[in-house]
Amino acid sequence: MSTAEGARLTALVQDKQESDDDDAGAPAAAAFSNQSGGVVDVLNDLLEKAQTQLDTARTKEETDVQNFEMLSQSLKDEVKFANKEMDEAKKSKSESQETKATAEGDLTVTQKDLDEDLETLGGLHHDCMTKANDFEAETKSRAEELKALATAKKIIKEEVSGAAASFLQDGLSISTEADLVNFEAVRFVRDLAKKQHSTALSQLASRMVSTIRFASGNKADIFGKIKGLITDMVEKLEADAEKDATQKAWCDKELAETNHKKDTKTAEIAKLSAKIDSDSSKSKQLKSQVAELQAQLGELTRSQAEMDKVRAEEKALYEANSAEMEQGLSGIKLALKVLNEYYAKGDAAHSGGGSSTGIIGLLEVCESDFSKELAEMNESEQTSQSTYDKETKENEIAKTLKDQDVKYKTKNAASLDKNVAELTSDRAGTEEELSAATQYLKQLEAQCIAKAETYGERKARREAEIAGLKQAQEVLENEMAFIQKGTRTLRGAHKHMA
User: Fold this and answer.
1) DSSP state letter for 439
2) I need a labelling partner for 410 at 20 to 30 A (CA). Which of 115, 122, 147, 304 fits?
3) Alpha helix locations (H) across 170-197?
4) What's the N-to-C CA distance of the chain in angstroms?
């Protein structure tokens, strides 16, 4: 019982005693016993009703607690499954982002290869058109040359017989520059050397001139030596052509392999760079998320500590106040019991039924107020404790989830950093291989491509030189046969004239 209530009850008892003193000697009230008995019955009825209400409230509280626990368990299960689905969705999202980054890297490399292929195709088309135009012009020039040679050959066949007969009959030798120029084989080789811009053929023509001018012996020996010079030159050109073809095959093989290696390493570097950028971005994002989660965990810990402090203070205050309230309520109930027992005796000496009724009524009001206040305190405590337990449980779940998320993301970030380091090392090695391949390719291009005359041009020139020299051999053979035939004819005519 509080001090104020105690003082109030003491004053009421003192007023009752004073009233009893004033009414001493008065006749006893006939209705005192019945009135006291009625008050006690009413008090007992009120006590029973209060007890019934208390039992009903306890039953309802137990039912509410069971419903709360069932709802709490259901919500926990929903949270558990929702977290599981969220983790699976995050994992699927991470895999999709990785696949997307890889595909974008492959697309970049493929687009770059396509652009290079289109550029190469354009260059090849331009080269093919240039070569086709050159071939057409060369074919036209060769046709005109063959036409001119055929006309010259026809003229020579028609006009050379008399001159050759006169030349052989008079016994003239080939000794002057005019005779050398008019000699068809030498002229043919010189024209071929001039057309092909060949120093070797020019030197061959000079050696042929020297052989004709300074050689001793009959005409067959001279023609044989000249034919030998031409044959040696043909063999030399064929050997050079074979060597050049072997070099060309080696160059083509090495250039193809080196270009393929260069393209492969370039694509590999681009792919590694794309993967490094993707993993670095993911790692940075994960680290940022980890930092945010750690900040949230720190705030959650501070909030929980504040809640623990407030809950401890509220509980201590409740325990002190409820103990004091229960003690007061017990005192009032004990006082009511004493008074009820006293007035139940029906003592005729006390006729102040109204005073007894007022005291008991006052005590009943005090008991009701105390009970109500105690119930409100208990209800408030239960509500506070329930709210605290709920928020604490939610904080524990949130803390567990965030701790697991921090652990998972930290592990993934470390794995990504390790992967980035490995990929960076691989890219450095690949870049070294690409640098070596590029350097070797430059050497090959300097050796195989970067020349004033391409292999195709050299091949065409050698084929033209060889064909021309073989044609010069045919000219020599024809000249040899013609001279031998002319010599026999002239000798017969000279004998007939003698």
Assistant:
1) H
2) 304
3) 177-182, 184-196
4) 184
**What gap in Å lies between CA 223 and CA 205, rounded to an integer?**
13
Lookup result for tokens 């792919």: 271
Chain position carrying tokens 């006729």: 351
Q: Which pLDDT belongs to residue 340?
A: 84
**Residue 492 confidence (pLDDT):** 39
pLDDT in tens, 115-145: 888 888 888 888 878 877 777 777 777 677 6
Q: Is 176 in a helix, a strand, or coil?
A: coil
Task: Give the mean model confidence (pLDDT) for residues 58-81.
Answer: 88
d(CA 191, CA 146): 13
**Span 476-487, average pLDDT:** 54
At residue 245, the pLDDT reads 72
**CA distance to 105, 213, 293, 338, 455, per residue, from 255 (Å):** 27, 50, 56, 120, 14
DSSP-derived secondary structure for 417-428: HHHHHHHHHHHH
| Calpha distance 90→102 (Å, rounded) | 18
Q: Which residue is it, tokens 């008065």?
A: 26
Give the model's pLDDT for residue 475: 62
CB atoms within 10 A of CB 187: 16
Q: Given pLDDT bands bounded at 50, 70 and 90, which one contains residue 348?
A: low
Mean pLDDT of 32-61: 74
What is the Cα–Cα distance from 456 to 132, expressed in whole angstroms? 13
* Of 108-112, 194-198, 426-430, highest mean pLDDT: 426-430
Residues in Cβ contact with 412 at an 8 Å cutoff, skipping those fewer than 6 apart: 94, 282, 286
- H/E stretch holding 91 reads helix 32-169
Rg (CA), the chain: 63
Query: Which residues lie closer than 8 Å to 255 by C-beta, 6 or more apart?
Result: 441, 444, 445, 448, 449
- b/e code 29-68 from CB counts within 10 Å (16+ = b): beebbeebeebbeebeeeeeeeeeeeeeeeeeeeeeeeee
Mean pLDDT of the region 51-74: 89
Q: For 347, phi and psi rounded to 5 degrees?
A: -65, 120
Q: What angle do CA 452, 456, 460 make, to 5 degrees?
A: 105
Q: What's the CA gap between 343 and 350, in Å, rounded?
A: 9
CB 289 within 8 A of CB 407: no
**Distance of alpha carbon 278 from alpha carbon 38, whole angstroms:** 90
Angle at 96 between CA 90 and CA 100, to 5 degrees: 145
Neighbours of 185 (CB within 10 A): 24
Least confident of 60-69, 166-175, 288-297: 166-175
User: Which residues touch 248 (CB under 8 Å, ≥6 apart)?
Assistant: 448, 455, 459
Structure tokens at 402: 């965030």
Strands (E), 109-213: none
Q: Which residue has the tokens 């001090």?
A: 3
